[in-house]
């Protein structure tokens, strides 16, 4: 196969006194993610998307939350491992399409930095990365500001 598609998603509760990091970028916010690692929902979804395209399981298999080495860990490490595996078997990113689902904060000012961060981590051009941000318009746990989620679709191509 010359192309492979992967999909990843992640969801975290939000709480006072926690940091909010999305796509490797620190986002000013009163609320942050409750998680074993740094809780970067976008990087977690990206990791799962790449692993899924490769047929190599998921983030929890490689970096279980039961392992104390993963406590507070930078989620960029997870992406780097997925990218390393991708490159080892002869694939590269064709393009990424992402969605950040959060009621607040507004992500528009941070989209260029997030896009550049993902491109750097994945070894691709920023033009191959799309960042979308959506609210839930007050509906459900996202709309009430209780959670944040992310979704990523990735297309890999054989080098």
Describe the structure.
It is a single chain. 30% of the residues lie in helices and 31% in strands. It contains five helices and seven strands, in the order E-E-E-E-H-H-H-E-H-E-H-E. The strands form two sheets. Strands 4-1-7-5-6 form a five-stranded mixed β-sheet. Strands 2-3 form a two-stranded antiparallel ribbon. A hairpin with a 2-residue loop joins strand 2 and strand 3 (25-26). Helix 1 runs parallel beside helix 3 (76-88).
Top keywords for this entry?
single chain; about 160 residues; alpha+beta; 5-stranded mixed β-sheet; two-stranded antiparallel sheet; 5 helices
Summarize the structure.
This protein has 159 residues and is α+β, with helices and mostly antiparallel strands.
């Amino acid at each position: 196969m010359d192309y492979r598609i992967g999909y990843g998603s992640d969801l975290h509760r939000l709480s006072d006194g926690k940091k909010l990091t999305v796509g490797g970028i620190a986002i000013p916010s009163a609320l942050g993610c409750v998680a074993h690692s740094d809780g970067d929902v976008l990087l977690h979804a990206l990791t799962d998307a790449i692993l899924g395209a490769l047929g190599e399981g998921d983030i929890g298999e490689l970096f279980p939350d039961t392992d104390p080495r993963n406590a507070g860990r930078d989620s960029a490490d997870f992406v780097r491992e997925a990218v390393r595996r991708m490159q080892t078997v002869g694939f590269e990113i064709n393009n990424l399409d992402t969605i950040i689902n959060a009621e607040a904060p507004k992500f528009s000012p941070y989209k260029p930095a997030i896009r550049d961060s993902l491109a750097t981590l994945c070894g691709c051009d920023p033009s191959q990365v799309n960042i979308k941000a959506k609210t839930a318009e007050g509906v459900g746990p996202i709309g009430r500001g209780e959670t944040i989620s992310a979704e990523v679709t990735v297309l890999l191509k054989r080098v």
